[in-house]
């Protein structure tokens, strides 16, 4: 079912999208910086990098992200899902401040406030652009069928037979 | 001229080209994937009717999905390449912020989404926010 307003389960999927993407990216970054410089003349080394532990963990997290992202895109607009996913950056920054006790500069606090404001702007609006046949093939098929019962050939014949002479 | 925020010595034009490559591939991939998912309809509904296997089959038999995934794969390898030459503090905020704006434009043009004033403001606020946060 498509909803202009989201259900709690759908908010949970958006949360999963938001958390798994930055965690996956951090793992990829850690893995790639540990490797020696890769040049375009040896592209195969990029493929080999996929099998190192940090990059493999990053990819596993990104697969989880992609599954939730696809689900979110099936009931919400791309321009709704993307700002919502950016909220993950805020979660990671807050975790690093309160869990890892890392210092956060004034610039970063400003960034957190701006992202939160942006996400709250989007969350207040509808999640999906309303269209007469929004995505559902069954509804599309119904919409393309004749509007009136007399437009069906078999029904038209029956009605013609029942007409008083 | 070399830039200080690069892990190795990188020309600024090469750095811009690497980031542009990530942004363009990522935008193309996300728009194509979103178009594919919209053409399928609500995945939760498909899963309720045909089970998880049916939902996976519906996604995997959609040609638009594969076009999208191909571009996303290109974006992924471009990102790996960029991370190998540039610092995360440059690549992550630049590509994430620019992708938000290019996606809003592409969503309006190609997906005919209703990108109203609220969504434009959100895209710009998040774009600046991501830049400040990761810079």
In words, what does this structure look like?
- The complex is a heterodimer of chains A (165) and B (135).
- Chain A is an all-alpha fold.
- Chain A is 68% helix and 0% strand.
- Chain A has 8 helices and no strands.
- In chain A, helix 1 packs across helix 5 (87-98).
- The longest helix of chain A has 26 residues, at 8-33.
- Chain A is globular and about 50 Å long.
- The two termini of chain A are 48 Å apart.
- The model of chain A is unreliable at 138-165 (pLDDT under 50).
- Chain B has helices spanning 12-40, 43-60, 63-85, 88-109, 117-134.
- In chain B, helix 1 runs antiparallel to helix 3, helix 1 (12-40) packs across helix 4 (88-109) and helix 4 runs antiparallel to helix 5.
- Chain B has 5 helices and no strands.
- Chain B has 135 residues and is mainly alpha-helical.
- Chains A and B meet through helix 1, helix 3, helix 4, helix 5 and helix 6 of A and helix 1, helix 2, helix 3, helix 4 and helix 5 of B.
Ordered list of secondary-structure elements with their pairings:
The complex is a heterodimer of chains A (165) and B (135).
Chain A: H1 8-33, H2 44-49, H3 53-75, H4 78-85, H5 87-98, H6 106-124, H7 137-144, H8 153-162
Chain B: H1 12-40, H2 43-60, H3 63-85, H4 88-109, H5 117-134
Helix pairs in contact in B: 1-3, 1-4, 4-5
Quick gist of this model?
The complex is a heterodimer of chains A (165) and B (135). Chain A has eight helices and no strands.
């Amino acid at each position: 079912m498509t909803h202009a307003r989201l259900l709690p389960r759908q908010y949970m999927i958006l949360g999963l999208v938001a958390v798994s993407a930055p965690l996956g990216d951090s793992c990829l970054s850690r893995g790639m910086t540990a490797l020696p410089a890769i040049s375009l003349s040896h592209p195969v080394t990029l493929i080999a990098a996929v099998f190192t532990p940090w990059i493999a963990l990053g990819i596993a997290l990104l697969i989880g992200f992609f599954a939730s992202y696809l689900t979110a895109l099936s009931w919400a607009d791309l321009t709704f899902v993307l700002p919502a996913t950016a909220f993950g950056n805020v979660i990671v920054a807050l975790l690093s401040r309160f869990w890892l006790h890392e210092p956060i500069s004034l610039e970063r606090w400003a960034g957190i406030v701006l992202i939160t404001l942006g996400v709250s702007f989007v969350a207040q609006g509808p999640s999906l652009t309303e269209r007469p046949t929004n995505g559902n093939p069954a509804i599309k098929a119904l919409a393309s069928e004749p509007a009136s019962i007399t437009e069906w050939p078999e029904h038209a014949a029956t009605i013609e037979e029942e007409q008083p002479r | 001229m070399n830039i200080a925020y690069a892990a190795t010595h990188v020309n600024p034009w090469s750095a811009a080209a690497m980031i542009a490559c990530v942004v363009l591939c990522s935008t193309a991939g996300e728009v194509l994937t979103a178009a594919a998912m919209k053409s399928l309809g609500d995945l939760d509904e498909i899963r309720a009717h045909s089970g998880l296997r049916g939902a996976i089959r519906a996604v995997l038999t959609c040609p638009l999905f594969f076009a999208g995934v191909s571009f996303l794969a290109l974006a992924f390898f471009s990102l790996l390449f960029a991370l190998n030459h540039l610092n995360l503090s440059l690549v992550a905020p630049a590509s994430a912020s620019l992708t938000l704006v290019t996606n809003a434009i592409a969503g309006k043009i190609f997906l005919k989404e209703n990108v109203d004033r609220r969504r434009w403001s959100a895209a710009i606020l998040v774009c600046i926010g991501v830049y400040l946060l990761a810079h």
